[in-house]
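User: Please work through this fold.
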Amino acid sequence: MRLTNRNVLKKLSAVSFVLVTALITAIPALARCSDDPMPGVDWHDCRKRNLILTKDNLERANLSGVDFSSTDLHGVNLSFANLTKSQLTRSRLKSVSAPHAIFVKVIGGRTDFSNANLEKADFNRAELSRSDFTDANLSFVDFNRSDLGRSDFSGATLVASDFSFANLARADLRTAKFNGKVNVKGAFFFNTRLEGVDLTKFTGLEQWQVDMLCGNDDTKLRGELKRPDNWTCIDED
């Protein structure tokens, strides 16, 4: 019996050690989401909804999977930050500085990126319908396969941006500044507002896309592309 009891005590001690170790390991993980905003902070998978984080510095922060729904991030430094799969529905990112930031597979809608510096940001496969990119710097941005339906790009700067296979249905690009080639291969242009835009700067543009977009007499096309017989749009909310 003594040997048996001793073995039981050893097993209990081992179990206690494992439990204590697990608790010690868990403490930093629990504290992580309550960490103050700072460069390099790790908030991945944290809940940060309905907050005011204006003008904070989150440079190079790990914000992947964070729920920022309806949060005010006006003027925040998001340079090189990772927001992969974050929730940005109705979030306010007005005037953020986010060059090289990663927005891959973010889920949003009615997100405000107006006046933001998003140069060389990655929005691959992002879901951002009805979002506001007014006057934003979108130079060298990757919107490959993103959903940007009904989004507003008024006054946005687009230099070498990539919209290949993106959904731009009913998006407004009439006053966007196309200062270089823009890749639109396979992009969905149903009722996309492109009146007065020089489409000769679009690479990958094909006739089937031209036939469904909204243009006018001031819309310019490459020589091999033809204007459709009816090139009008109906404004919708």
Remarks:
- The first strand starts at residue 157 and ends at 158.
